[in-house]
Design goal:
Layout lengths: L7 H11 L3 E6 L7 H9 L11 H4 L11 E8 L3 H5 L9 E2 L8 H20 L5 E4 L7 H7 L4 E2 L5 E2 L7 E8 L21 H5 L5 E3 L2 E2 L5 H6 L9 H4 L2 E3 L3 H4 L19 H4 L3 H6 L2 H8 L9 H15 L5 H6 L6 H14 L1 H14 L3 H7 L14
Parallel strand pairs: 3-10
Antiparallel strand pairs: 1-2, 2-7, 4-7, 5-6, 8-9
């Protein structure tokens, strides 16, 4: 007979007091069922590199806390009423994933989980051990959430809640407190039924099959990767400068979902659809001053500049030509390559000579590849006109 230190009723009361809308709990037993999925994910080279690399540690909470007894999972919604009323401005504006429209969720969720830990300590009347795990930790937060009963894992690999769909941030509190479960420990899968809209809509085919993703093809990853963006992903990026919401936007489970009451997630209009020229004009310091409070700034200004150039190329905005030409001499190879590609999309005839001259002085092999088109005869230029 298990003796619980904390009842599910008390945990729910703590969550309500703190303002956590969705909460669940499961035990700290390993997620052995994940092992074959994760092993294949790494072996097939589908991992983005952002994930924790050791499979054994990803499935066992006791690698984070040796005395772990319970895993508390929370889902914090980030779609607000204001989010739904933001209007899409005219070009030349980029697009940022909705999860980054407000303040950085890592800080907000950590604060909530630490508050939960403090309240639990008061309730059980003893010092407790606890560790916060928020998406950069070893644990697979979606698996914890699904086994705790707060949602199911959809075909788009997102955790989908009944109340808020997949528009939620997930966090886990690993603790040595034995807590009464709210649901049976059964991971929910495939409440998507026959729907495959997310697989069909994915711009790059990153969702290779239901519940399986090639993270390196996901446009959210592509906007965050370092270096030169592979050419096959540039056109699919469209105007995206950070993240991608396509698989969530088309999901029927997100239609009519409830909205959050979290002021920290209220959208910043300038961040939702940022001015691309403004992005290219910002110094590193100015970029952090404007966007450093969000979850979209951790890669720094250079990644945003590169993405802004790709977006301008996709928009065929001729006003960008002088700026793109000037950036052919930038010190960063990814900026030079992106500028050359943007020119090839906007006005290859008008920019051919400048790109050809840049090619002759270019030392970086990868950048030269993106400038190669300018050495061709103008009659066979690929795009433009």
């Amino acid at each position: 007979m298990i003796t619980f230190e904390l009842s599910q009723g008390k945990l729910k009361a703590i969550a309500k007091e703190i303002g956590i809308q969705v909460i669940g709990v499961t035990d700290a037993e390993p997620f052995d069922d994940l092992m074959p999925f994760l092993q294949r994910y790494y072996e097939e080279g589908r991992a983005s590199g952002f994930e924790y690399p050791v499979v054994e540690q990803r499935i066992d909470a006791k690698t984070l806390l040796a005395d772990a007894q319970s895993l508390i999972s929370i889902a914090v919604p980030y779609i607000t009423q204001e989010t739904r009323t933001v209007s899409r401005p005219k070009e030349p504006r980029g697009m940022v994933s909705v999860y980054s429209w407000g303040n950085d969720y890592h800080r907000i969720l950590r604060d909530k989980l630490q508050h939960v830990a403090k309240k639990i300590e008061e309730a059980v009347n003893r010092p407790i051990l606890s560790v916060c795990a928020i998406d950069t930790s070893a644990l697979v937060d979606r698996a914890v959430a699904a086994r705790s009963g707060i949602g199911f894992i959809g075909k788009n690999c997102s955790l989908i809640t009944d109340e808020y769909g997949s528009w939620v941030f997930l966090g886990t509190l690993v603790t040595d407190v034995i807590i009464e479960k709210m649901h049976e420990d059964v991971t929910r899968w495939d409440d998507c039924a026959d729907c495959t809209l997310c697989l069909t809509a994915c711009p790059t085919g990153a969702l290779i099959k239901p519940f399986e993703i090639d993270a390196k093809r996901c446009l959210s990853y592509v906007t965050q990767m370092k270096g030169i963006i592979p050419e096959e992903f540039r056109a699919p990026l469209g105007r995206r400068v950070w993240g991608c919401d396509t698989c969530q936007t088309v999901c029927p489970k997100n239609k009519g979902s409830l909205v959050a009451q979290e002021p920290d997630f209220s959208p910043d209009a300038e961040l939702c659809f940022p001015d691309l020229y403004h992005i290219l004009s910002l110094s590193n310091r100015a970029f952090l001053r404007e966007f450093g409070h969000t979850s979209a700034a951790w890669r720094g200004a250079n990644v945003w500049r590169r993405n802004a150039l790709i977006a301008l190329g996709n928009m065929r905005d001729r006003r960008a030509m002088p700026l793109a030409i000037s950036l052919l001499a930038d010190v960063r190879p990814e900026i030079r390559a992106s500028a050359a590609w943007a020119i090839s999309q906007i006005d290859p005839k008008g920019g051919q000579e400048k790109v050809r001259q840049a090619y002759e002085n270019e030392q970086d092999t990868a950048v030269r590849k993106d400038m190669q088109w300018a050495r061709e005869d103008s009659s066979v230029l690929r795009l433009g006109e």
